[in-house]
Amino acid sequence: MCNKHVFVSFFTVVAAFVSSSTALLAPDYIHPCNSTESECLVKATQDAIPEFSKGIPYLGVPSLDPFIIDNLPIQLPGVKVTFLDGKVTGLRKCQVLNVEAYLEKNVFILEVRCNITIKGKYTAVGRLLLFPINGEGDSKIKIVNSVIKMNIKTKYFKDADGRDHFGIKSYRYTFDYGERIHYTISNLFKGNAELSNTVLRFLNENWRVVTEEFGQPVVDYAMNVTIETAKKFFDAVPYDELLYVPIPKY
User: Fold this and answer.
1) What pLDDT was estimated at residue 79?
2) Half-sphere exposure of 214 toward its Cβ, with a 13 Å CA cutoff?
3) If you compute the radius of gyration of the chain from its CA atoms, what whole number of angstroms results?
4) pLDDT tens-digit map of 76-102
5) Predicted confidence band at 3 (pLDDT cuts at 50, 70, 90)?
């Protein structure tokens, strides 16, 4: 009887070990495709974005919605702007327009449409277009229906256990500022509410010109955060849990 109990206990331990060692690392909202057809890839990506953007703490993958801009200095011709304690939201509601995967060519293409809001503190000193700026206060930027297209150069690698993984080698992107960008910025000119309101009105009436003047560093920062987050996910989750298509030779 004692031996029987020992055997049962041993079997239970072994079964638990096998079960834990074969457990999927990918969250259950990851729905792998059986092919690289765009229709399936678009749906799988759309299914994943709302939850993925919240972060995956057990894999060390941080949140993308919100993500925090602690301190982002932007030096432009004539003006220095610094964003502080910023929070970016909206990525979880992005609409996936297109996904293409060319495994043999190591190319992955993603195109999404997003409404993005950036809130935080700011300081600004210098001259922006026609106006002198000497401001410090709260800021809110709403970007409506921006379209982001990323062209990612991928790679493959094995982890310490010999399992294959996706990797990101490099990327480039295009960014359409969308239908509208609305600025809500307080105290653009210290001690002069009338001038501050005049400058703010100008910024909103000429939002495209203004955004093209200083928007690129903010977008670059957001893209880098997104790519670094994706790298952490791909480092953690094996290829065979993400796509049911044989991995190319590498």
Assistant:
1) 83
2) 22
3) 24
4) 778 888 999 999 999 999 999 999 999
5) very low
Q: pTM value? A: 0.83
* SS3 sequence of the chain: CHHHHHHHHHHHHHHHHHHHHCCCCCCCCCCCECCCCHHHHHHHHHHHHHHHCCCEHHHCECCCCCEEEEEEEEEECCEEEEEEEEEEECHHHCEEEEEEEECCCCEEEEEEEEEEEEEEEEEEEEEECCEEEEEEEEEEEEEEEEEEEEEEEEEEEECCCCCEEEEEEEEEEEEECCCEEEEEECCCECCCHHHHHHHHHHHHHCHHHHHHHHHHHHHHHHHHHHHHHHHHHHHHCCHHHCECCCCCCC
Closest alpha carbon to 203 in 146, 157, 149, 135: 135
The pLDDT tens digits of the residues spanning 130-180 come to 778 888 999 999 999 999 999 999 999 999 999 999 999 999 999 998 899
Do 202 and 179 touch, CB atoms closer than 8 A? no
pLDDT, greater one: 192 or 91: 91
- Tokens representing residue 107 in the block: 């190319």
Q: Quote the CA–CA distance of 188 and 51 in Å, as a whole number.
A: 37
Burial of 147 (0-12, 13-18, 19+ CB in 10 A): middle
Please give the domain boundaries of the chain with CATH numbers for all domains.
Answer: 38-241 (3.15.10.30)
